[in-house]
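Holo model, arginine. Inputs:
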Amino acid sequence: MTDPQIVLTERVQQALARAFGPEHADADPLIRPSQFADFQANVAMSLAKRLRRSPREVAEAITAELSDFPGTIEVSGPGFLNITLGNAWIEAEAQQMLADPRLGVGTITPSQTVVIDYSAPNAAKEMHVGHLRTTIVGDSLARLHEHLGNTVIRQNHLGDWGTPFGMLIEHLLDIGEQAAVEQLEAGQGTEFYQAARAKFDGDEAFKTRARARVSTLQSGDPDTLRLWHVFMDATVRFFNKVYDLLGVTLTDADIAGESMYNPMLQKTCDDLESSGTAVISEGALCVFPPGFTGSDDKPLPLIIRKSDGGYGYATTDMAAIRYRVNDLKTDRILYVVGNEQALHFQMVFAAAKQAGWLPETTSAEHVRIGMMLGKDGRRFKTRSGESVKLMDLLQEAVDRAAKLIEDRGYDEATQREIAHAVGMAAVKYADLSVSHDSEYVFDLDRMVATTGNTGPYMQYATARIRSIFRRAGISPADATASIVLAAPAERALGLHLLGFGELVAQVTADSEPHRLCAFLFQTASLLSTFYEECPVIKEGVDPETRDHRLALCALTLRVLETGLDLLGVPVPERM
Ligand code: ARG
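Output:
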């Protein structure tokens, strides 16, 4: 355990127990980073009242029990403990981290099975920017859990079923399979949908055909199912293009769309009804989970089967939660889905608990994703009011990145590779660096900037270290000299890096990748101060100092690269 804050917490707790009795062994010593020392502990203030002693006296009694502490402790003001760690301790811990392939990141024991429901675009419409964020955040969570040794089951809950498929299939027949496939593969799902919709609204004969097609689809007619597959396969091929471009880890094997639950829906309804969890209300089968009321104070229904007998979004989610608990035997389910579905998930979780389908031992969590806004502060749209095409947007990010590096003299292939990595990093990091539930403004100018808390800035930090190693003529893996933290900038960087393992664990537990971004940004900032104050390969730097500094650079590089990889942000060797 390297995280200084945790080490200190344990030490002070032991001192508390020795000074005031074992009942204080679990007290929170309230250790916080401090302006005046590395950390301060505020526990003396809160304990003083209970012990009926002055805070200063309490602080001094704690200090007396910490005589073997690897650093200095001073009592200041009314009773704060100012804690400064000894360099030797920090150096030894950093050295250990350098030798550790996992960089102090532990594994969760016993490991858990975690279902991560993310991305989930709708096939009846185009994959849009909203799904970009659920895809990127979900993918980072999947990487984090896997890194900690959990078994991750990715589930791409595609919107691939329902009444719109009647008109979509009829439209596909009208324009011909091949033309339809080409259009869908090219990412023109919205145009396809709009054309079908226009006919549905304006052409009675088409409407009749579309409705009949819904029934044949639902009855499992083989010809209709084949057409549905033609439509879906082409659509998924387009989704895969987006996933490839983004470098997300989703594959076809992770598709678990709404259609998958279709065969389970009738039993879902029957079981909810026979257990009394769901009741018929105004012709519909509904669950009324306790505590949910509408504006009129009437109990709010979760509609499981509509009055016309049709199933809906909630029916599928009830079937899915049961499947995930019973068949996938999951310990945790993360639903990485837009904020606006918060009520839906609260009601689904409550209804599943009521039905006994979601035991205490399984936690279902909605990882709320905030809306993406345009620069005007409204929902992100093109000027003509249409939703922005994802591919266009990603391409624009790559184009801007290409501009950024166009004068660096790379050959065309390298240039293209770097531009791609930088463009994707810009978009992905921007998504990840703000807390997932806050709205954020999609602003490519800011995203591709090489200063500030951006993807390109983080890439730049790693490229800078790599370039030092190239100039030094050794590989980072060979920089195994001892870490010496003599200068303040070295010390600050070394101390900061020690927190990595604990941070990754917390970020994973709390589903908060933005805190990993903040940690890496701080790393890069401390690194840049280190560059200014501590030359590594400049003339006049003695070989020993150089080797110590290269070792610190190697550790920093691995923390940055590992962290970025956990975020799914690509790291080019050069920029
Ligand atoms: N397809 C849905 C949408 O775009 C998201 C599905 C999320 N997952 C779920 N189990 N409901 O809104």
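The mean pLDDT is 94. The first strand starts at residue 31 and ends at 33.
Archived with the compound record.
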